[in-house]
Every structure is written in structure tokens, then in C-alpha cells.
Amino acid sequence: MIEFHSLGGSSIRCNGSECTGLSAHKQKVALLFYLAVEGPVARSSLYPLFWPQREEEKARHSLSQLLYALRQELGEEHFAVTGEQVGLALGAVAVDLKEYEAAAAAERWDEVIELYRGPFLDQFHLPGSPEFDEWRTRTRAWVSTLARRAFGRVVEARAAAGDVAGALAVASRWVNLEPLEDEAQHALIALLAMSGDRAAALSQFEAYRKRLVADLELEPLEATAALVEQIGSGELPESPLLESALSGAEVVADYDRGAPVVSDLEAEPVIPPVDLESLLEEELGERLQIERKLSESSTAIVYLARGLAPRRLVALKVFAPRRAPDRRARLRFEREVQAVASLTHPNIAAVHWAGALSNGLPYYVMQYVEGESLADKLQAEGKLSISEARRILAGVASALAAAHRRGIVHRDLQPANVLYEEETGRALLADFGLAAILRAEDMPTPITRSGELVGDTAWMSPERLKGEAVSDRSDVYGLGLLGYALLADEGPFIAASKQELYSAQLNQPPRKLAELRTAVDSDMAGLLERCLAKDPLSRPTAARVAQVLSSPATEDLARDDTPRGWFQHLLERRVPHFVGVYLAIGFGLFELIETAVGWRALASHAMPLYLASYFLGVAIVSVLSWFHGKKGPQKFEKIELLLLGSAILLWVVVGAAILLLF
Predict the structure, then answer these.
(1) Contact by Cβ (8 Å): 613, 621
(2) Which of 138, 255, 297, 569 has the fewest other C-beta atoms within 10 Å?
(3) Reduced to 3 states, what is the DSSP secondary structure of residue 559?
(4) Count of CA atoms in the C-beta half-sphere (13 A) of 7
(5) Over 50: is that where the pLDDT of 262 sits?
(6) Cis peptide before 540 (omega within 30 of 0)
(7) How many CB atoms lie within 10 A of CB 51?
(8) In what order do the strands lie in the sheet containing 427-429?
(9) Which helix (H) or strand (E) holds 317?
(10) Element (H, E) at 119
(11) What whole-number distance in Å separates Cα of residue 484 and Cα of residue 516?
(12) What is the predicted pLDDT for the residue at 443?
């Protein structure tokens, strides 16, 4: 039996214990959860979800390979694959979300809140698959809607029956699971007052308000603020609930989980379906020529464009039309524009200009960085050389220092949000979508609706995880994490699960960097370890980090354990490995051909033809391994094609000469 635990995490258990080998392969986990939740689906519907950039035939092949691997790992009996339909065997799997939905459909609200453990696929993300993330977002909204309905019903029922203590216990659990849920906090504050503890109610509101401001720069709902004023004046609330806590799923059985969910509090007129590229060409055609789509996330679409005046390549980032009703996401996008437009620094991707389309979608035009993110670079190459990591960290620290001087905290520093320019080797800080603007005079219009904690908790500072106020030192903590990723290709904490990692970030000291990369000089290692101090005031400033890392480090250069020189570059690209294998195989074939010629099984010119092919093959293998021997995918270069073409042409000429001579 395979058990799928999707509420509050993404755990898959085989016969009572964690399925081995799955957690390291996100695409396998994502496919299994999708099949478990959605049931049998057509193969073709899976291609855009998991391989959006591939042609259909290649996506089909990738799906077949993935399914084959899963059936080998988990057993054929757990799958139901018939022709074009792919699914999981009903009797061989158990899905917590299915039980959750069934209980809600039957209005067994106590069972619903017992099953609820947190957001759907909490903290799970599949890079490069925006359609899957969109499905996860829709399902998470549906799960949250049911949870709000269930907790609201149970709280209402117990309070109406005079069981204030029971209602208070349910509201407390609701807040523990959803600390940024307005309805949960409103209910807990009201019930604390109704139980006679007005001081605790006021204290709870103040703690909630501080966390909202620290994490999302939001203020509590006006209704909750009015409730607190009422409690402060000595009046008790008549009901512990906001009206919205009971709305949102009036007919649970008929609700379409596939449709977008937008609560009444944040609903705005939906933008009609539109051909976005046509609209961009129509409205921005005088200034930009759209070349192609670069990427797409759940909140934005990025295009490569050519500026017409002045002529230059730029990146055009447009707010995703499907997120138009989400006011909070739109305000985050607009705040990103405001934050980046105010910054000028060589290590920050610059904004050239910004605006809004006629349908209200905001956009901005920014510097195009030809390269990849540091996350992609790490995935392809592994840990970087010490000198390169030092230079990148110094540039990022300098960029953060410039932002901090403007009163802006990035709050989402991680390899995926740092771009690497291939031509110059420069690192540019990007994606200020979660930036906090600290100075009051720069503060945007307050947002009055809370939401889930945004961002990846693996890259959050301890104060963010605890809901405390952020400062510039929160970014410095991110610098420390980034340093470990670049130098050791792993994090500073040992953790087998997200819960263990969360606890380690709050309570455990980081591992010594020297234990993970012995060649790192002690000053640099000590600096990055101080960046990870639990107390923000014990961390250095970003400016200080930039200053230290920008200064010469003779010890660092002398002890750099990364290959240097031509031979070391050959080793890094594994040229000797591939050429050695080729020579060994070729020598064996030489013996066979020589024997065959001696027995007159082959013509006499076979040996010189083979020798010519053999030695030219060394050149071809050397070229191929030089350009493609490093870990990860590499692109074909013009010089590579020229060299290969020259080698093949030479082989044709030599072969023709041998045939003429013999």
C-alpha cells in the first residue's frame, strides 16, 4: 500500500515507511501526487505539466521513461496504465486529500479539521513547470477553502452550544496551522475575550499584527481591528467569526477543484482572455519587438525583446493574466518594480522603464542578462572554484548593501534569484518580488489582506521563520546560505526533513565550512559562519561582507582546490577520461583488424584506412569532450562545429588518397 500525505507536506510512504529514493527526484514525486489526486488522465495532458518546453514526441518519451522507472521502484501492481490512460491502481493507494474531500462533501467537519495538517503540498515546488505549479496553487486554494469552512463551522457550533473552551481549542489549532489566516486569528482573539481573558486577546492581536507587518507588510483586516477596539472598550463580541469564515464553499460536492479560487476579500474583475503577445505587439510595438518567451512562473511571464530606440536586447516581464484577480500578487509585482527602479548598481539587473497595458496588467522592461541563474549553474557544474565563489559573493553583497542604503531588504536571496552573465562572469541580483521597503516615506499603500507565508523557508532567516521583523541582516543570513551553496554545494545544516531543517535553522549552529571545503581560507569561512548567526545583530552588514570579500586573499588563492591551468581544465572537462577510453577500445580493434588482414578476411587497405580513422577519431573525441565533458548540459559552439567539420573533411581526403594508392 502506498500512502500519499499531501496536507502539510509532500510525503509518500510505502508499507508504512518513507519510500526510499523518491524524495531526491522532484519530478517523480510531482507526477505521483498528480496521478493520486486527479485519477487516470490522458498521457497528452501530462506533457505541458511536466515538460512544457519539449516537443510532444520528446515529452512522450520522457513520460514513458519516468513511468517505467516508477513501476520498477514501486511495483507494477500500484499502476493502472492502459493505452493512452495513466493512473494509479485504486485499491493499492491511499490519498489523504481524497479522504479530506469526502469528509467535507458529507459535512463531517470535525473529521475534516482532524485530517487537515496544513497547506496542500506545502513547500513543494517543481522548477521549470509553471503549469504544475498553477495546478498546485488551485488545489491548495481549494483545500484552504474547505479548511476555513470546516474550522469556521466547528468553532461556530461549539461556541453556540456554550462550549467556549472547546471552540477556543479548535481556534488555537487553526492558528497554529495557518498563522497568517485572518479568519483564524479573528476567531482566536474573539474567543479569548469571550473566555474572560481580554489581556490575552489584546496580546494575541498585537503579536499577529507584528507578524503580518514583518512577513508581508500588511495590516490586519478592518473587522479584526474593530473587534479589538470593541474588546478594549469592555464589550464582548457576539460571534467569534468573520462572515467570510463560513463562505467560500456553500455546495462542497459541486465545487470545481480545477477552477481558480479567489476569496471575496481579494476579488477583482477578472481580465477577459486575451492573446498576450498580440496585445504586447499592438501596444508596445513602437518601442519593442517581441522575440520569444524566455520563461513563465505562476505570477509572471518573461519575454526576450529587442528595444528599437535605443537598439538593445531587453527582458520584458509581464504580470500573468491568470493571476489578475489576486490583488496581493499584483501588489507584490508592482512593489518589485518600485524597489528595483530605485536602484542603480552593476550587480543589480536594471529596470529601463515600466507601465501597464490597456487591460490593467503591469509590466516592466529590464536589462537582459545572457546566461543562467546560479541555481542552473550549480546544477550543471556543482560547487564553484573558491575564487569565483568569492567574486560572486562580493558582487551580490555589494548589490545588497546598495539596496539596504535605499531602505530595501530583498528577503528572497537564493541561487535561483541571482543571474550569472556568461560573457563577463558577473552575478546580478534579481527578483525583488518579496522585497520589504523599510523607510516609511517609501512605503507603498498598505495591503489589507493576509495570505500564506511567501517564499522558500529553506532560505529564510530565523527571525522570518519566527514571524519577527526583518532587517538588512536578514539578507546577510541569505548571503551565508548562498556562500555554502556556492562553495560546498550543500547547506550548513544536516536535516532529513523540512521539519528538521526548520528546527536546525532556529536552534543549531551551522557546520564549519572548512569541514565541507578544506581549501577555503579561515577568514572567509569565519565570515560566512558569522553571517549565519541566530541573532541578527551578531551578523556583519552586507557592506562589510562586500569589503572583506573584495580584498585580496593570498591564502585563498594559494589553497584553491579547483583545477587551474590547461591540463587542469582538461581534467575538469574529462578530456583524458574520454580519450583514454577511446584509445583503449581503438587498440583492441586494431588487434582484431590486423589479425583479419593477416588471414585475408579484409582487404589490405583496411589497415591504413583504420589507422587514419583512429587518429582522426582522437581529435574528434577530444573536441567533443572539451565542449561537452563538463557535468550538465552544454551548448554547441560555432568553433566546435568548425573543428568537427574540418576533421571529417580531412578524413574524407585522407580516405580517398588511401583508396587511390591501394
Answers:
(1) no
(2) 569
(3) helix
(4) 21
(5) no
(6) no
(7) 20
(8) 371-373, 418-421, 427-429
(9) strand 311-319
(10) none
(11) 9
(12) 38
Distances (CA, A) of 289 to 309, 351, 356: 11, 17, 17
DSSP type of residue 218: B
> CA 469 to CA 452: how far, in whole Å?
17
SS3 label, residue 121: coil
pTM assigned to the model: 0.49
Average pLDDT, rounded, for the chain:
81
Confidence grade of residue 475 (pLDDT, cut at 50, 70, 90): very high
Q: Is 251 helix (H, G, I), strand (E, B) or coil?
A: coil
- Reported as a single tens digit per residue, the pLDDT across 52-68 is 777 888 888 888 888 88
Residue 245 reports pLDDT greater than 60: no
Helix 386-405 / helix 542-550 crossing angle, nearest 10 deg: 150
The pLDDT assigned to 567 comes to: 63
The crossing angle, in degrees rounded to 10, of helices 472-488 and 522-531 is 130
Give me the pLDDT at residue 308, please.
76
CB 420 within 8 A of CB 372: yes
- Of the chain, the percentage scoring pLDDT greater than 70 comes to 83
**Residues paired with residue 120 on neighbouring β-strands, in sequence order:** 7
Sign of torsion over alpha carbons 269, 272, 278, 282: negative
Q: In the Cβ-directed half-sphere of 638, how many Cα atoms lie within 13 Å?
A: 0
Write out pLDDT tens, residues 109-125.
999 999 999 989 988 87
Beta-carbon contacts of residue 78 (< 8 Å; ≥ 6 apart) = 2, 71, 88, 89, 92, 93
Contact 246, 149 (CB under 8 A): yes
The residues, ordered by sequence, that sit 6+ positions from 84 with a Cβ below 8 Å of its Cβ are 42, 43, 44
Residue predicted with more confidence, 334 or 266: 334
CA distance 486 to 374: 8
Cα(275)–Cα(485) distance, rounded to whole angstroms? 40
Cβ distance 305 to 365 under 8 Å? yes
The answer to whether 69 and 76 are in contact (CB under 8 A) is no
* DSSP one-letter string for 6-56: -BTS-EEEETTEEPTTTTT-HHHHHHHHHHHHH-SEEHHHHHHHH-TTS-H
Work out the burial of residue 605: count CB atoms within 10 Å of its CB; fewer than 13 is exposed, 13-18 middle, 19 or more buried.
Answer: middle
Distant-in-sequence, close-in-space partners of 640: CB < 8 Å, separation ≥ 6? 623, 624, 626, 627
Q: Among candidates 432, 415, 437, which has minimal Cα distance to 345?
A: 432
Question: What is the C-alpha to C-alpha distance for residues 479 and 513, in angstroms, rounded to an integer?
Answer: 14
Cα–Cα distance, 81 to 40 (Å, whole number): 8
Active site residues: 412
Other C-beta atoms within 10 Å of 454: how many? 15
- Cβ burial 300-326 (10 Å sphere, 16+ → b, else e): bbbbbbebeeeeeebbbbbbbbbbbbb
pLDDT of residue 561: 46
